[in-house]
Write a structure and sequence with these properties.
Helix content: 55-70%
Distance between the termini: 26 Å
Structural class: alpha+beta
Shape: flat
Strand content: 5-15%
Number of strands: 11
Number of helices: 23
Radius of gyration: 43 Å
Length: about 850
């Protein structure tokens, strides 16, 4: 947990891995996720590296795995998750896995091909049987017709007038969507010298490709002449019709139909055996494929890391470099020794000096991951920079709750987050693929604290679904006012609004024990009172939040040895911020403590005092809060203005003097900071710029070039940004006041327009119960949709802005990069 406040110490290490044990060493490092490897072959093409052949074999296996997985999905099966922890297989197992995979793929292709062929043959037999079994009867000749076809028997009884005429037949089946077009084209192309009969099959036949049941149209066409027969065959071929031989005699057709049915039964038996064998092959695939996929992905990842290593001059070991936390070095060394023990030569790891900025390593858990994600979305902190996440755990939910304060709404959010926290270990919850749900689930602890803090601020505002609650007795007494003021019935009839005067004895008994007095919910000046209270509260919270950010910068300067910044930057910033806006906070608190309810009417205006402070003037009508107030205000303004040139010129001039002194031939080496990685020299010397200089810079003082104009320009930008930011950022915190009032008013409007209407609709118990059911459902739905989701998202975004812009820019650069250790966590 100590790394949460500042990133852990990360060092650059060098590995010497024996060639025979390099694979096992890297595999064990991937299981533990301790080191991030650097590419030592950046100038070498990916096709010229040592282990490119092994990587290609793994990729070919992955292609075969995709084919097997697609076959399993096609059969309607699901691959089970791999059981247990699977290690990367030894290189010698790659050939075995490849042979078994190829054998399974070959069997699947053969069985699937046989299945398709048998299904196609069975489909042809079923279509042929359907054509012969439909019972088409066509007349020999066609009379003039209005439609396209005649549905009368084709052959005349024996001894008819056309008994010597030769009639030919074409029988087959076509898809129903093509039947009408086929019939129309046949009639037009043959000019009516044919008679066709189309009938829909009584039973649906299974499609051999998709396996879905489909209806077919059978047809029987009689024609005269060879030329017309050629036209009919060409047309049926164009429509992809299935054409079958047609026997004219009834007995012959019945015999053929029996033979087709017998062949269909035999084919169905063979197809059943084929499908049973296919299910057996798919069962083996289901059993073997999941662990193979994990193992091959791990093996491929190991070879990709080995491709980043360089070969030693003797070709006996691989040399690798990587970043690692210094606290993990003993574990790293022990793992390498255990992994290389079988090779007879132990792997070696040792620290090496580095002039590059190391990556940032901050370890998180389930609770802190969401808050660290908020900070990292702004920017990953630089190496060993102060991490805002621990403070964000408290300040972010609190500022959100200031804008979202309501006991009822906060309790709903808290219960929703609590349900996700309690169900976080369930596999179904983790495996949910809905993107919105994953967003809520990843921030469940953040939502939990946001709801809890909203309940707290809701008690302070004394609001529960916009309704005030009387937990303690009110500090205002209406009875005392009525007794001492002589309110009569005539007075009450003439004055619909009554005023409670705190100057009257016994009317104001004292402040409410916790939060806002519930009597204010009945007052017509309720909004005016809350405006004043929440506006001043926002200023106090904002100045406190920004001051805390400036103070956190002190820890950065002390850690990196930049002592001059404490006097030349941090101290002027604190004087400027506290001398102006800290004084405003002091006036607010002083007025609260010194002005009572009885003297509220004659209390001085803080706004006029603050304006006169910058004008160096005095308002006769606005009395002072304390003796000597004008002198104190003038001194604070002068002192704040005096810090501007110090903030602008102090650091550049000091760095110029420091650079000149470092160029003198003193005969001693430049001092490095305590880590040996980051020194405390000027960042502009190394070309980083003013912002980067706050954390420290890299580079050699003797080789660096100091440019005073660049340092002055960066420092001028920082000075202008801070001085103007103190004004704009303080005003930005007024969004706490605005959104808090907006949330309260929306809640009040929703209650007045929905629930209050329902409560007034029925006076009888039964009628009220029936009416309130749909009204409460509408009220609950609107509360969740508008006040929880929309207003909650708005308050979340505003709290996010206050942390990123107003708080973190006082001390946090966020220009680093994360430590990304080589790990198999994603493959598992």
């Amino acid at each position: 947990m100590g790394s949460m406040f500042r990133g852990e110490e990360v060092v650059l290490v060098q590995f010497f891995l024996p060639t025979s044990a390099a694979y096992s060493c890297v595999s064990q490092l991937g299981e533990l996720g301790l080191a991030e490897f650097r590419d030592l072959n950046a100038s070498v093409s990916a096709f010229q590296r040592r282990f490119v052949g092994d990587v290609r074999r793994c990729e070919e296996l992955e292609k075969t795995f995709m084919f097997l997985q697609e076959e399993v999905r096609r059969a309607g099966l699901v691959l089970p998750p791999p059981e247990g922890r699977l290690l990367a297989p030894p290189p010698r197992d790659l050939l075995r896995i490849q042979e078994e995979t190829d054998r399974l793929a070959r069997e699947l292709r053969d069985v699937r091909g046989n299945q398709q062929s048998l299904r196609a043959q069975l489909h042809q037999l079923q279509l042929h049987s359907a054509v012969l079994g439909q019972g088409h009867h066509l007349p020999l000749a066609a009379a003039p017709m209005d439609g396209l076809l005649e549905r009368s028997p084709l052959l005349q009884p024996p001894g008819g007038p056309h008994q010597d005429l030769r009639v030919n037949f074409v029988a087959g089946a076509v898809k129903p969507t093509k039947a009408a077009a086929l019939e129309r084209l046949l009639w037009r192309a043959c000019r009516g010298f044919l008679i066709a009969s189309f009938r829909e099959t009584e039973q649906q036949l299974e499609d051999p490709v998709t396996g879905e049941p489909a209806t077919w149209m059978t047809f029987l066409i009689s024609y005269w002449g060879e030329q017309i027969g050629q036209k009919i065959r060409k047309i049926t071929d164009c429509f992809h019709c299935h054409v079958f031989p047609f026997v004219e005699q009834e007995e012959g057709r019945l015999g053929t139909l029996q033979q087709l049915q017998q062949q269909s039964l035999e084919l169905q038996e063979v197809l059943g055996e084929t499908e049973r064998f296919l299910s057996q092959v798919l069962g083996r695939v289901q059993q073997l494929l999941p662990p193979w996929q994990v193992q091959i992905r791990k093996m491929k990842a190991v070879y990709l890391v080995l491709n980043q290593c360089s070969m030693s001059a003797t070709h006996k070991c691989l040399i690798a470099e990587g970043w690692c936390a210094s606290s993990d070095l003993p574990t790293l060394q022990q793992v390498l020794q255990d992994s290389s023990s079988e090779a007879g030569v132990s792997a070696v790891v040792h620290r090496i000096p580095c002039r590059e900025m190391p990556p940032t390593l901050i370890r998180t858990n389930r609770f802190t991951a969401g808050f660290q994600g908020i900070v990292d979305a702004y920017g990953v902190g630089r190496y060993q920079e102060v991490n805002p996440a621990p403070y964000t755990i408290i300040t972010f939910p609190f500022l959100f709750a200031v804008m979202f304060g309501d006991v009822g709404h906060g309790l709903l959010m808290f219960l929703f987050a609590l349900a996700m926290v309690l169900a976080e270990n369930r596999p179904a919850v983790k495996a949910a693929q809905n993107e919105i749900w994953q967003t809520f689930f990843s921030g469940r602890y953040l939502l939990l604290l946001m709801g809890l803090f909203s309940v707290y601020t809701g008690f302070i505002y004394n609001e529960c679904f916009s309704r005030a609650t009387t937990i303690f007795p009110s500090g205002w007494s209406v009875a005392a006012m009525a007794t001492q003021s002589g309110w009569s019935d005539a007075f009450l009839a003439e004055h619909p609004l009554l005023t409670l005067d705190p100057a009257v004895s016994g009317v104001f008994l004292g402040p409410y024990p916790f939060g806002i007095d519930p009597v204010w919910s009945l007052a017509v000046n309720h909004l005016t009172f809350l405006n004043s209270f929440k506006m001043k509260m926002s200023i106090i919270l904002g100045v406190t939040h920004m001051t805390f950010g400036v103070v956190l910068g002190v820890f950065n300067h002390v850690h990196f040895g930049q002592w001059h910044r404490l006097l030349l930057e941090t101290l002027p910033e604190l004087i400027f911020l506290l001398g102006l806006f800290g004084y405003l906070v002091f006036l607010v608190i002083y007025k609260w403590l010194c002005c009572s309810a009885t003297s509220a009417a004659s209390a001085p205006s803080l706004l006029i005092h603050f304006i006169n402070m910058f004008l160096f003037s005095h308002s006769p009508t606005n009395q002072s809060l304390f003796p000597g107030q004008e002198g104190v205000q003038s001194a604070l303004v002068v002192l704040a203005l005096a810090t501007v040139p110090v903030l602008l010129l102090g650091t550049p001039l000091f760095l110029r003097w420091q650079h000149r002194r470092s160029l003198r031939p003193t005969g001693r080496q430049p001092e490095e900071d305590k880590s040996g990685i980051l020194d405390s020299s000027d960042a502009s010397v190394a070309g980083w710029g003013s912002d980067e200089e706050k954390v420290g810079c890299l580079g050699d003082r003797e080789e660096a070039e100091f440019v005073l104009s660049e340092v002055l320009m960066h420092q001028a930008i920082h000075t202008i940004e801070f001085c103007l930011g103190c004004i704009s950022n303080t005003a930005s915190y007024l969004r706490l006041w605005a959104l808090s009032l907006a949330h309260a008013q929306l809640s009040e409007v929703l209650w007045a327009m929905v629930m209050r209407v329902g409560l007034r609709m029925g006076h009888e118990l039964g009628v009220a119960a029936v009416v309130l059911v749909p009204i409460f459902a509408a009220f609950a739905g609107l509360t969740v949709a508008i006040l929880l989701v929309m207003e909650g998202l708005s308050a979340f975004l505003h709290a996010l802005r206050l942390h990123w812009v107003e708080f973190q820019n006082k001390f946090y650069l966020g220009s680093g990069y994360k430590l990304s250790p080589f790990t198999f966590a994603e493959e598992d």
